[in-house]
What we know:
6 helices, 5-stranded parallel beta sheet, Rossmann fold, globular, alpha/beta
Amino acid sequence: MKHQGKLFFFCGKMGAGKSTMSKIVAHENDAVLISEDEWLSVHYPDQIQTFDDYIELSGRIKPFIKSHVQNILKVGTNVVMDFPANTINQRTWFISLCSELGCEHELIYLNLSDSQCLSQIEQRRIQQPERAHFDTEAVFHHVTQYFESPNDEENLNIVCVEKTAHT
């Protein structure tokens, strides 16, 4: 049987640096990078105005994404998914994607404090003004209430990345 690719995915609060890290991990692992933001903006331009819009439309693309990612993994190519794995339910979806194929996975957990994330969100608002309406402290706090840190019972292969104030 041909070697299958490995799936990389990310957990971290809003502003933790998941998208930035996904580009680095994709480059380091010769992987295909698949970005949820890109898929959503192409398929649903200007339709995401609220967090609830995001939840609904993200759910709509997941069946297509799952099939697409599994086909890439089957041919032996690594895949980096810039999709949040910030709740147990989201991580369960990633694990089902892998378990159906029997492929390896790695969850990269960006464990930053709220203040670190808010600082990075502020920088992102400056660098990407088109995101300023969504990248706010209020949205951060709303989204963070749903965040669930990964735990041992989930049987995940976790790489934890912690940033200090100097990194």
